[in-house]
Amino acid sequence: MKNVICFSDNRADVEVAFRDYMGHYMTEVAKRDGYTYNKNVSFDEKEAKMNKLMMSEITKLSGVNLNNSMVSAEMMASNPVLRWASFAVVDSMIDMIVPDVIDKSIGIYTEQRYGAMGDSFNFVVEPNDLFYVSKVGRDRRVSEFQKQFPGQTTILPENRAISVSVNFYKVVCGKESLAKFVMKAVMSLEAQITKEVYIAFSTAMGQLPSSAVSGDLTATGWSADSAVAIAQRVEAFNGGATPVFLGTKLALSKILPATGAANSGYRYVIDSDYVKVGYLRNFYGYDAMEMRQVADWKSPYKTVLDDKKIYVISPSTQKPVKLCYEGSAITRPYDFNDNADLESTTTINKSYGIGIATNAIAGLITLQ
């Protein structure tokens, strides 16, 4: 993405610094895996550095010098230009970080696209099947005519909003961390986007044919034979792209060579993947990949992902879910004098659309 504010003359260094802060935050605060960061510098030092960099950019954008002025911090906090510049920086940081965080959580089945304000997103889906080869007599000039037609779908982004209360006076005084505020907004958006994307993905997978003739892409209950059979079909009809078994840790824990009485004689080594990780990393040559469970923040202690579904997809083919961002994040701050407690309120707007567009084949195993 190009809509990232340059915090200094060396933009690359600043981006690296913020991504390092993000990696440290996601690992130590959010307890996520898969992020790298410099372990030689403490998180508090990085946060202080990022707040200083962000305030430097706010000063540059607003033209208000916070250090060399006889005006008090209280009066500085009431400057509308300073508030605008602060949230302009916040918006830029959100646009920089959200795609990276999203890619690590749902990137295996989600493709992200970016557009300008007012854009819609059109996807042309080419047929993935081949032409049928006919056996004909030598006295015929032609065989059966065949014509393939591509499909087409359009995704229209819709606006989402987060309304929060911010004590801007404390931000100006350095009593509240603007960098931590950015990461909280990023994680809030990530949680909502992940939930919406998974619902779209799960709904699409639920539409797989399940008739007696075409039911080979779906199975009810775990069986090693049926699972491998589905994986083989997905691989064959995706041009040889190797599929993976995708599911939550609880779902993947059911992947065993055999079930029932046939499995009663198995013994597991203490340092095996099944004991240490909770599931087999590889099953008959097909990798198993965990979908990290997601909290449903609107329903306390409930989770979003279905623990009874194992999906069979080929990550190297067209990803089924398309996540399309429209323009940049936009924040609309409101004057603190409008509130009785003098708290500043602001609404962060981010527009995106989610849809299904793919010619890849997938499978679904529903556990009992």
Report on the structure:
It is built from nine helices and twelve strands. It has helices at 11-29, 43-62, 73-77, 80-106, 168-173, 178-205, 224-237, 249-252, 273-276; strands at 110-115, 121-125, 151-155, 158-166, 218-220, 244-247, 282-283, 286-290, 309-313, 321-334, 344-356, 363-366. The protein has a six-stranded mixed β-sheet. A hairpin with a 2-residue loop joins strand 7 and strand 8 (286-290). Helix 1 (11-29) crosses helix 2 (43-62), helix 2 (43-62) crosses helix 4 (80-106) and helix 4 (80-106) packs across helix 6.
- Strand order in the largest sheet: 5-12-9-6-8-7
What's the overall geometry?
Answer: elongated
The N- and C-terminal alpha carbons lie at a distance of 43 Å
Largest sheet: 6 strands, mixed
Helix content range: 25-40%
List the helices and strands and how they pair.
Layout: H1 11-29, H2 43-62, H3 73-77, H4 80-106, E1 110-115, E2 121-125, E3 151-155, E4 158-166, H5 168-173, H6 178-205, E5 218-220, H7 224-237, E6 244-247, H8 249-252, H9 273-276, E7 282-283, E8 286-290, E9 309-313, E10 321-334, E11 344-356, E12 363-366
Parallel strand pairs: 1-10, 5-12, 6-8
Antiparallel strand pairs: 2-3, 4-11, 6-9, 7-8, 9-12, 10-11
Helix pairs in contact: 1-2, 2-4, 4-6
